Structures are given as C-alpha cells and as structure tokens.
C-alpha cells in the first residue's frame, strides 16, 4: 500500500465512521473505484482505532464521569440510579451482542461480507430503514430517558454493523430514532457505545497483523490511522451540530445513490 492510498483511506475512514453512511463500506468502495486492492477487514479494524481515539478525546469529560460513577455504583447501590452510572452499565450490556456475533461470524465478516453487491444492497436497504425511522420516531426522549431495554435494542442494532454497508452509527442512530430518542441524543449514545466494540476489534486486528496474517505495511497503517483520527474528530463535531437542527435525509439520499452506483458498476464489470 502506497502512502497516497493510506492517506485517502484514512480520510475516508475519518469522514465516514460517525456519519450514518458506513466507513467499512467506503474502505471497500474507495479502493474499488480507484483500482486498488481491498485493504481487508483487519486493516479496517485497526484504522478504526484512530477514529475511536477521536471519540475518547472529544468525550473525555463524559467518559471520566461515567467511569467514576460506574465504579462508585459497584460499591454503593444508591448511586446506581444516576445517569452516569446507568450509562456505564448500558454501554457494557449493549456491547455484548456485537462481541458474540463478531466472534461467531469472524470468517464470514473477513471474506464473504465484503462482496460489493452485498454492500450496495445494504447501503440502500438500511438507508430506507433510516428514512422510516425519521418518519415514525417522535424524537421526544433524551439520554436521561434511556433504559436497559433501549440499550439492548440499540446493542443488537450495533451488531448489524458487522455487515459492511450497514454503518455502526447508522444502525444505532436508526434504532434510537425508532425508540423515540432525539437525533442529537441518539448520536451521543451511538458514539459512546461504539468505543468498547471498536477498540476490541481494532486491538484484535492489530494482533493479527503483528502475527503476520496480512501483508499491510505498518507505516501505511500508521498514516491512515492518523488521518482517520483528525478527520474523525471533525466529523463528530459536525454531526452533533448538524443533527441538532437537521434530519438525516441527506445521508439517506447519499446511501441510496452510492449503493445504486456500486451495484450498477459492479454488474457492468467497471469495478470488482
């Protein structure tokens, strides 16, 4: 992988990780459009560590507060009802589904799930489901109103992101909208929920790369991760401000257009 490829893929990862358009799909689509080799699922998992660092830095005050409250609630049952303590438990519980399915379908994720036809179809279908969520969701609930049942539903939605084209943020925000959460609150919970799952998958991918299972250059990987971090931080700030005053319709349109384009170009043999 050249440095140019690494920079482009890092930018693609950073810009799309938190927007509901699927970063894993773009790390498969962009190389296909450019005529480059597929960087692979392990490369994708490791580069996501850059965007996760962006989340940690952006929300570090919230994270410190949540961790402290959660640890305190282990010793003092009276504190378990606080929002921060509950958020700690919700993030843990909601991470379990993606952990189970990720291990169970590891081989399919790394190989068959990166099929361009599948990615195009999933981009379109999940975009239309997001549009439905926008229409039926009442958008009246804040983070304070989230309960364990909500966390579980959103956690199972996050597990769908194992299929490229779904979008981790897209699936969790869609589920939250169906549960009548406000868009900005849905995005905040989505970002916090993504941290454990992506960190674990990224570390797993890094171990696999160190073992020599893939031929990725570590210098290229480092460059891509740095660019993913910088653009990821910008993407978080943008999306939170955007969803405070706008719907997700622009992302729905983008998903349908890109998904249709991928299917058409793959069918014609233009990309493969």
Describe this structure in words.
- The protein is built from 12 helices and no strands.
- It has helices at 3-16, 23-34, 41-58, 60-75, 83-104, 106-110, 116-136, 148-159, 168-178, 183-210, 218-243, 249-268.
- It has 272 residues and is mostly helical.
- The mean pLDDT is 91.
- Helices cover 75% and strands 0% of the residues.
Summarize the structure.
The protein is mostly helical. It has 12 helices and no strands.
Total number of strands: 0
Q: Report the order of strands and helices.
A: HHHHHHHHHHHH
Distance between the termini: 18 Å
| Low-confidence spans | none
> What kind of sheet is the major sheet?
none
Structural class: mainly alpha
Instruction: Estimate the helix proportion, in percent.
Output: over 70%
Number of H- or I-type helical stretches: 12
